Amino acid sequence: MPSGPDSFVSDPQYGQEFDRARGLVLAHPRRWRVIYHYDADGIASASSAVRAFGRLGYPVQLTPLIGVEREKMQSLLASTKGPVLIVDTGASWVDLYPPHPFPVVILDHHTYPGAPTPPELPPHVAFVNPLDWGVNGMSEMCAATLTWLFSVFLDPLNWDNAAWGLSGGIGDRQHVGGFHGLNGILVDEAVRRSVLVRRPGLALLGPTVGAALTGAIDPYFRGLSGRRPAVDAYLSELSIDPELPPSKLPPEARLRLVGSLRSRLEGNGVLPEFVALLDQERWFIPSLGRDAEELSNLQSATGRAGTPGVGVAMALGDARAFERAETEEKRWRGGILAALVRLEEQGVNERTALRWFESPETPLAGTQAGMAMSYLLPSDKPVIVFSGGGTGPLKLSGRGTLRLVEKGLDLSEALRRAASAVGGEGGGHKVASGATIPAGTRDQFLEEADRLIAAQLHLGVTT
SS3 for 224? Predict the structure, then answer.
């Protein structure tokens, strides 16, 4: 295994993009504004960036960005009298950065206009995107692992940003089926350097088996999650004490529980890659004494609570930030769980090529859609969730599966075009994307999105 990042990818564009970005950062030892998306991937990206800048002695101004907000980005650039680092957002707006009179570095894994051919940019702008070097931004590298890798280019000491790379990768669900591609190379190297430990374990997070199953959202178990009496009855049938900590389960009881839960998921039509999350390899962070998925959930919770800075503060070792994040995680998990139980009981709306529902919990809507797609809904169509609205803009998130992508699904293209048709804007990945549209345009948007996705999946559209 190589000891440095230079040889991880053979495509020359890889080294050129990182060298350009590194050169701009090292040549400007002053305050940098770091703009980041407010989800787990964005917060984790900002975490690695802030830690790396701290080692360089650079002060940082952190600014979270929510949703698809071109005008907000324009405003931030106009008000910033210094260099800017943008992580996990902004790939769709590469045209905004050349006029900025100071250096701009963009680290993003989302699809951009013209991908995978990088745009021509002036010397003071560096755009680093794995799509340019043949690395899949949906499954092989997220913004957090990209920023972790960039921090290693700045200084090998930053291999210890592994915690935040994996936190964001799990938040973007790139751990499904195990980390692979460039993500896998980074994980292997982090394990070799002892900043990360692979270990077996169950995806049951909680003080007891009963509490963990009741609060389970990933995997989500139909008829059990959110229903403690049903959980207690289920565990009684398996002769398992619900008050046992998951780590204290005897081997035979663990095998019995895993086998039963696997059968339950499979019987409900859950795809194998999501069933495997139940007991696939886990990643432990010795320096924090925490599981990487636990860390990811904490950062997700702070972002969705509107306090993403708390998520970054954890990366700086703030004990109070961890305490606050743990409080927010309970609310975050409860909000997702309540929505999934609601969807299980009430169902969703059907169209020819997509399903959709509304969520009153705007900050959690995208996560709700992702979990519903994984554990509740058939895998033949993507799902779209709407939130916000009233007199203001309507936000929406779309989620599919990699299997649908293989059949032609491109949610980034479909949602971008459907949003544009009603005066909004959108973008993201083929498998997961979002948009913001004007109030009152939901039905028109749905009609256009249904038509576009039906064409991608070769389905007939009824009129």
Answer: coil
User: Which residue type, as a one-letter code, is found at position 145?
Assistant: T
Same domain, 59 and 123: yes
Count of domains observed in the chain: 3
The string of DSSP letters for 21-60 reads: HHHHHHT--S-EEEEEESSHHHHHHHHHHHHHHHHHT--E
Backbone phi and psi for residue 282, each to the nearest 5 degrees, phi listed first: -120, 165
Dihedral angle over CA of 379, 331, 435, 399, nearest 10? -10
Burial of 384 (0-12, 13-18, 19+ CB in 10 A): buried
From first CA to last CA, the distance across the chain in angstroms is: 56
129 and 266, same structural domain? no
Which of residues 263, 278, 293 is at a domain's end? 278
Dump pLDDT digits (tens) for 231-289. Answer: 999 999 999 999 999 989 999 999 999 999 999 999 999 999 999 999 988 999 999 99
Residue 28 CB burial class (10 angstroms; 0-12, 13-18, ≥19): middle
Inside any domain, residue 307: no
Domain that holds residue 148: 5-197
Q: Spell out the residues 6+ positions from residue 351 whose beta carbon is closer than 8 angstroms to its own.
A: 446, 450
**SS3 letters for 100-150?**
CCCCEEEECCCCCCCCCCCCCCCCCEEEECHHHHCCCCCCCCCHHHHHHHH
On whether both 29 and 136 belong to a single domain, the answer is yes
Instruction: Give the whole-number percent of the chain exceeding pLDDT 70.
Output: 98
- State pTM to two decimals: 0.87
pLDDT at 68: 60
Instruction: Determine contact, residues 106/55, Cβ cutoff 8 Å.
Output: no
With a cut of 50, say whether residue 463 has pLDDT above it: no
More confidently predicted of 388 and 291: 291
Q: Within this chain, do residues 64 and 175 fall inside the same structural domain, yes or no?
A: yes
| DSSP code, position 172 | T
Q: Model confidence at 177, in pLDDT bands (50, 70, 90)?
A: confident
In the listed set 140, 172, 197, which residue is the last one of a domain according to the structure?
197
Q: Let me know whether 70 and 156 are in one domain.
A: yes
Q: Is residue 213 part of a domain?
A: yes
Tell me: pLDDT of 363 over 90: no
Query: pLDDT tens for residues 115-160?
Result: 899 889 999 999 999 999 999 999 999 999 999 999 999 999 999 9
Secondary structure class of 225 (helix, strand, coil): coil
Residue 314 lies in a domain: no
Residues 228 and 180 in one domain: no
